[in-house]
Amino acid sequence: MKITLLGAGAWGTALSIAFAGKHQVTLWSREEDVAVDLRETRENHRFFPGYRLPEAVQVSIDFAAAVAEAELLVVATPIAGLRPTVERLQALGCTLPILWVCKGFEAGSGKLPHQVVTEVLGPQAICGALSGPSFAEEVAAGQPTAVALAANDPAFAREAARQLHTTRLRIYANDDLVGVEVGGAIKNVLAIATGTCDGLGLGLNSRAALMTRGLAEIARLGLALGAQRETFMGLAGMGDLILTCTGDLSRNRRVGLALAENKSLPQILEELGHVAEGVYTAREVDQLARKLGVDMPISAAVAAVLDGRLSAAQAVEQLMARDPKEELA
Ligand SMILES: NC(=O)c1ccc[n+]([C@@H]2O[C@H](COP(=O)([O-])OP(=O)(O)OC[C@H]3O[C@@H](n4cnc5c(N)ncnc54)[C@H](O)[C@@H]3O)[C@@H](O)[C@H]2O)c1
Ligand SMILES: O=P(O)(O)OC[C@H](O)CO
Hints:
- This protein has helices spanning 10-20, 32-41, 63-68, 79-91, 113-121, 136-140, 154-164, 177-199, 204-224, 235-246, 251-260, 265-272, 278-292, 297-306, 312-320; strands spanning 2-6, 24-28, 43-44, 48-52, 58-60, 72-75, 98-100, 127-131, 145-151, 169-174.
- It has 329 residues and is of the alpha/beta class.
- It has two domains: 2-175, NAD(P)-binding Rossmann-like Domain (Rossmann fold); 186-321, N-(1-d-carboxylethyl)-l-norvaline Dehydrogenase, domain 2.
- The protein has an eight-stranded mixed β-sheet, with helices on both faces. The protein has a two-stranded antiparallel ribbon with strand order 3-4.
- α8 (177-199) crosses α13 (278-292).
- The longest helix is centred in the middle third of the chain and has 23 residues, at 177-199.
- Nicotinamide-adenine-dinucleotide binds next to α1 and α4.
- NADPH binds at residues 11, 30, 103, 136, 251, 275, 277.
C-alpha cells in the first residue's frame, strides 16, 4: 500500500520506519530543513536523532504531491496541527481514507480528533485513530508493540489494522473510536500528574493511586461522551496509561517531573523541544468535565497547576483533603 505520513516529528518519523518494511512510504515534513536533513543524512536530527530512515522512504515538502501519490494518509502532527492539515486536504478535494495518531482534545474547541476531521471533511470521510502504548523510540527500534485502531467505519478499521499490522507492531481493530481517543487524550494529563507525584517523592502508593483513580476519571468522561467501558481496560486506555505514567521516555511524564522542581512551564516546554499534549488537553478536559458534570479532580488539579493557580504541593494537599467517597461512585 502507498502510505503518506503528514508530519515528520518523532512519531511520524518512527512510523515511517515501521511501515517501510511492508509499504511504499512517503514522509511529508512542513519544515524544509528537516526534509533536507532527512534526505541528506537519512536522520531527523531535530525531532528524532539516532534512528535511520530506510532508503525506500521518500521525503517530501510538497504537500499536494505527497497526498496525490497516497492510498492511505496518516496525519502525524500534534492535535494543534490536525485541523490545518485536514483543511489543506479539503482544499485539495482529497477523498482518501485518513488515520491520525495525535492524542488530545483540540485546544479552544474541546473537540476530539474525529470531531475535528468530520467537521472539516464531512461525515462521509472515512477516518480513524491509531493509538495505544507506543513510544516512538521503541517502535523505530522494532521492539514489540501493540496498539489499537478505531475508525468511523468498522470495516475500514479492520482492513487498515490488517494492512498495517507487522510482526513488530501488532494492531488490534476496535469499534469504539470515542473510547480510543478519550483514553489516549487523558492519559497524557495523568502522566503529568504521576510525573509530578514522583518528582515530589510521594512514593509508589501515591503513583498507583493516581493511575487507578485516573483511570476512573478517563472512564467517567469517556462514558459521558458515549464510549464503551471495555475500551478503557484495553491498549488505548489502561495500556497507554501504564506506559506514559511510568515510562521516562514520556514527554508528559517529564513535564510533571519538571513541575515538581518548580520550573516554569515555558522553560519546561522549551527544554522538552517536543509537544506534550497533556499541557493543552488538561484545560479542555477540566472544562468539558465541568460542563458535563463529571467529577475529575485529578485532571482539574493538573489544569490548575499548569495554569499557575496551584503549586504542585498545594494540588496534592487539595486532592487528599477531599471528603471520603465510595470507590465505584
Ligand atoms: N512521540 C511518540 O512517542 C508518540 C507516540 C504516539 C503518539 N504520539 C502523538 O503524535 C503526535 C505528534 O507527536 P510527535 O512525537 O511526533 O511530536 P514532535 O513534537 O516530535 O513533532 C511534532 C511534529 O508536528 C509538526 N507540527 C507541529 N505543529 C504543526 C501544525 N500546526 N501543522 C503541521 N505540523 C505541525 C512539527 O513540525 C513536527 O514535525 C502527538 O499528538 C503525540 O501525542 C507521539
Ligand atoms: O511522550 P508522550 O508522553 O507524548 O507519550 C508518547 C505516547 O503517547 C505513548 O503511547
